[in-house]
Every structure is written in structure tokens, then in C-alpha cells.
DNA sequence: AGCACGCCGACT
DNA sequence: GTCGGCGTGCTC
């Protein structure tokens, strides 16, 4: 038998199947979807078996060396899906497959050098190197290259002469967690006899034996046995030595939710509206029919209950369910609802888990120990065999698009998988993307609308405050009178508030009053942000940090001022103006440590603070009963970005954040501070009027030829040399203009909105089109043409077939 | 991506 | 003449 293998070399020349002969002893073992170790040129690599066949076009085939996994990691569906992803996003096949698996399954390769015979003299090599060569671990080749050319050369010639040996080693990044278990190694009837025999000479050991007599289990984790019988390692060991007990290793799962209890919940009674919406979904589940639904429901309209009951129907049919959420670590509440309803059948996959934990959750799915997966974007690749429903909550969230290769959108994958499994795909949002809503209106998706909130409460009234007016009336603070008074009122009443500001740090730029100098990142074309806690200037793009200068580096003036407001400054202001209020600040700076997210959110949920202040990470899915005020400090922060989606994003953020207040018994208020109160996205968010916003924004998109009227493709070129980038970008634009039809609109070459990041200049070219069947071919030719320069000159060409943003 | 092969300039 | 630089092409 011959296996078609996709090898782990994501590069142009190797982006195809390589045929290998399956050796006899593996003939029965190797299956499609497994990873195998193969010789590739002089080295050793892993690859995915994506097909089996009897014959090959090539005569001389190498043999598969070994298997990596005991069972396939990809099923036929996922193998096909990978091809589809590679083709539709222009990525390498191997990258597509790798991205379907947890990070722990990435392979690490190393080349190691060993002495063949310690007696061989290698006088050119220093003592230390020779010791390493003689050791069991050998000498790491990558490490060796750091120790100088002469040494590298001597080693190479020694290899040539056969005095040193090269081994290619492959390791998995993550390991399965194991623990030791002991079991009784003799017939249980004999235990009593043994007990009698040793009880006097070895009372401790007898104690252990008695444990097995008293309990029916014959297998127990060693640690647990030691705890239960208060025995030591030595005691157990002597029993093992006597072959009364047998110790083996067993794989275990790391369970991130191990210590938590989830109260079982039952289905709630649905409202008439919910019933109407769920009916066609249930009918599709029943009839194994694929259809994409868009549930447009205001916040609090009970979308989650629809998801839960649909999943319940799926499980009852013996099928599996995938539920995507934007970023679940932000919503422990969602995990609770799912674990509460479905118990241990739920696997959870999100970025808050460690690599190992994600690996374990993934294996739980693969071994069919989970029926439901709740997770972020990559959970869309859950290795289920029999999917009954795929749900994407908050479908407008930008995190569903992967911003690195393969640049897929989870929504597209969901629909592709839904079609394969003939099951419904449900998209839900209070503020759907224009693309999805347009498709729903056209009948491509089935639209379900939920107008009412389950608790019948009206959506909180939003007040838009014109900050220009505030300024005119002499209020120069960050807070409008309206917001400040309400904040104070909530603090006095013991109710909670949420404040949103989409900028972290203290001030957004640092400026010299005398000469106009603005502190800029030396590596990026962006001004540095002042962080007060560390008294540092930071670049939010490359991480560059610098001491805050006490005098202007240009003119030595001491009149250095801070402009723009970040979350740190707001926190400081709050402490000054309202010392009695306690504030929790949540942004990248306070949540970068693992578990901090949840910690801060829990603290706020337990009402340990009056005010939760944060960047947009606080806008998603939070649900605190005691929050009665939501303030948006700078609603226009996103509005004026040069991106076609900025109005949509603003509308979504304001609507989402507004829905956070007054979800429970208390009713809520929303205050939106802005310098452009007349803008439609702010006005319509205030009125919770998605439909008017949709109509208005659709007109704008049509006028400016953006999605959903046109498709978009973004080509970004970057390199350290500006002229090189411009040159390549010009040529690419040229080729595109030549190859595409008259209808295609090609914008560029232009500098990217941030023209330089990490010392690399960025130029881009945007293609707007309706129907260009040759586009992918042309782009592939472009990539092929620049392939050499991309690996040699550190030129990068990024192609995003459907960019969510062109920033 | 690695790695070998092969072609050209600088040196023993 | 050989060593060592790097450009070119292949890997089942």
C-alpha cells in the first residue's frame, strides 16, 4: 500500500502530496488522517496521511518510518475541509491541517549530533562540545551553530568521515499528562491469605492490602492509595516488588473545571417569539437538513435558551453540537450555563486554557467523551463525526476571523461543515454584520427576529452627551456632568457601573509645548503611549518601551505635556474625583497574566467594586445584575478610523454595551459621550434601531463599493526597505490591473494606515470586485513569482481574501 | 524549510 | 590548485 502524505514543510515547493510506501508491519495500522514520520531528503519529518492507494506514478518510493498517533487525528471530512481552506484562503495545505489541531500537537524538530565511538579523537573541538557529543542527549545542531564557524566546520567534516552521527529528533510540543496507578496483580481471593501472612511482619503493607479487601476496586492512582492508607512510597514499592501489586502509567485529562460544581439546570419555558424561532431549527435537526439561520434578537431576548434547547434536541438524536462564542474566558457565565445543562458532555476550548488543557479537551472530543463543544474560533474544527448543529453566538464579533494564515472566518467554516453534515447552522446577534443580514434578507439565510426581551424590560434609555457642549460650558474633565452625577448616584446607592474607553495606557501621545516634538516609536510609525504606573512610554504595536523623558529630547524644554486619555488616566481621575468609589480596571495591561480576566470579573460580580472600567474587552457578553449604569467615554474613538467597517463597529459596540445595563430587576441607564453626536451610528445605537442603521449603512457601502455589495481582497506587502516595498506593491498592482476585468476596482499601491511596524514598511493594495474567477489564479501566480524573494529577502506578501478590516 | 550541488573569486 | 562564498533546485 502507498500513502499520500502532506509533509510538515509549509512552503511553495512542498505544498503537495508525497507518496510513501507503507511497510508491512504498519500495513494494518496506518489509516487516512494519521500523522506519520517520513524520511524527507536527508531529514525526518512528520506529515498527514490524506489518502491511501495501490500504485504511484513514481517508481522509487521511500517507506513510512513510524506513526505519530495511534489513531487518526483528522477524519475524511476534515481532510476535505483542509483542502477547501487551502484553496479558498490561499494557504498551504499543511497549515490548514495544523490549524485544525490543538497547539500541543505541533511538532518540534531538532537535529542532534552524537559520537559514534568515544575513543575517536576530535582535537579540533573544545572539551565542552566533546562532552555533549558523548552524552546520551547528544549535541543540538542549532545550538552548536552559535559556537562559531570553525567548530561547525570540524563537526561537519567529522560527520562526513563517519566519526559523528546525525539523528533527527521529533517531539510533540505538548505531552499527554500521565499518572501512576497500581492494581492488584493476583486473584482477589488470595488477598486475605496474603494479609494474614504479612500482617505481623509488615503492618503497613498489610494496611494497604486491607484497603483492597475492603474496597471493590482493583485499580487506583498510586497517590490516592497513599493518601487513603496513609502509607509511604516505600510501602507500596515493596508490594510491587513482591508482585502483589502492579504499577502502570495511565493517561489522565487536565480538567480546568475540576474543582467547580455546576448546578444542573433544566429548560426554561420559551416565549412565543422564541418558540417561533426555534421551530424551523428543530425541524431541520429532525430532518437532517442544512440551512443557515440568522437570529436577530435584542440583548436579553433569550437567544442562549434557544441555543441550549436546540442542542438538547441534537443530543437526543445522538448527534454532536458545536457552539462558538467570541472569547469564552470573558464569559464564565456561558460555561456555567452549558456545563449546568449538559454536565460532563461539554468540552470547553478557549484561550484562557493552557496548551495542555486545550489538548485534553480536544482529546475528550476525539474520543467521543464529549457531545458538545463550547469554544472560541478554532473550536469550529472540533473532530466530531456526526454534527447535528453549529451555533455561532455574537456572529458579528471580529474574533471569528483568524488574522494570520490560514485567514479563515469561522462562519464560512461553519457553513461548509453544516453542508457536509446536513445540519443547521445558527448565527445569532443583536447587531448582525451587514453581510449576514443582507444574506438573510435575500433569503440565503433564514431570518428569525426576537423583538422582545425575556424579562419584558424595556432596553435602557441611552443619553448622548455632546462633549463639545460640555467644553463650551466650562467642563474640561473627562466626565460630562450627566455621567458624573449618575456615577455618583450609583456609588451612593450601592449599585454598580461599567465605564468603557477604548484606549489603554495613560495618555495617547506625549508632546513638547515648545518645539512640537511628539514621542514616536523608533520602530513603528505611531506615537508612543504614556503609561503612568511604570512611568514609561510604550508602543502598542511592537512593545517598545522607553523611559518617560523629563525634558524634550529635541529642544531640552521641560514643557512636556500629555494628550489624549487612556484607561489609566480615567482610573486616576476617578480616584481623585470620587475617592469613595472603588474601581476595577480591565485592559490588556491588567489582564495579561493568566486567570486575571476571570479574577477581575469575579471580583466585580461579587460587588467588590463600584465601577468596572475597561477597554472593549468588557463589552462582550457580561451580565451583572447589579449594573445599572453604563458609560461610554469616547464613543467616536473608532468612528473616524479609515476603515469601511468603522461605523458598523461603533454601532455594534454601543448597542452591545448598552445592553449590559438593567438586564435583571433593576433598570439601567446608558450615557454615551461623543464629539459627533449627529453621526448616524451613534444616533441609531441610542435608539436601538438596527434596521434603520442597516439601511443607512447599506447605502454607504453601496456608494463606496464595499461589502456586502463588493467582495474585498487585501494584499499587504512589507519589508524593511521602503523603496523595495513600494516597488513590489506597484508591480503587483500592475499585474492585477492587467489580469482582472474592467469591473474590478483596484486601490493602490498605498501605504497601510500604519505605514511602518517593527521596522518594516507596509504597503497595500485593495481589490474590490463582484465576480473575478481568475483572481485566485493571478494571486497564486504573484505568490509563486515572489516566492524566492519571500524566503531570501524577508519580503512578505500577505493576502487576505475577505478582510474584516483594511487597517 | 533544509540541505546538497555547483559555480565563481581569493588564497596557500 | 583548493577553500569557501552563496545562488538554484529538490525533497516521494
Automatic annotation (TrEMBL):
Binding of Zn(2+) 2, residues: 521, 524, 539, 542
The record's free-text note on cofactor binding: Binds 2 zinc ions per subunit.
Segments forming domain Helicase ATP-binding: 284-450
Subunit note: Component of the replication restart primosome.
GO function terms (MF aspect): hydrolase activity
Helicase C-terminal domain sequence ranges: 547-704
Cofactor(s), by name: Zn(2+)
Keywords of the record: ATP-binding, DNA replication, DNA-binding, Helicase, Hydrolase, Isomerase, Metal-binding, Nucleotide-binding, Primosome, Zinc
Gene this chain is encoded by: priA
Binding site for Zn(2+) 1: 512, 515, 552, 555
Protein name: Replication restart protein PriA
SUPFAM superfamilies reported in the protein's UniProt record: P-loop containing nucleoside triphosphate hydrolases
Family matches, as PROSITE patterns: HELICASE_ATP_BIND_1, HELICASE_CTER
Family, as annotated: Belongs to the helicase family. PriA subfamily.
EC number: 5.6.2.4
Reactions the enzyme catalyzes: ATP + H2O = ADP + phosphate + H(+); Couples ATP hydrolysis with the unwinding of duplex DNA by translocating in the 3'-5' direction
Organism: Pseudalkalibacillus berkeleyi
Enzyme class: isomerase
Coiled coil, from the record: none
Classification of source organism: Bacteria, Bacillati, Bacillota, Bacilli, Bacillales
HAMAP family: PriA
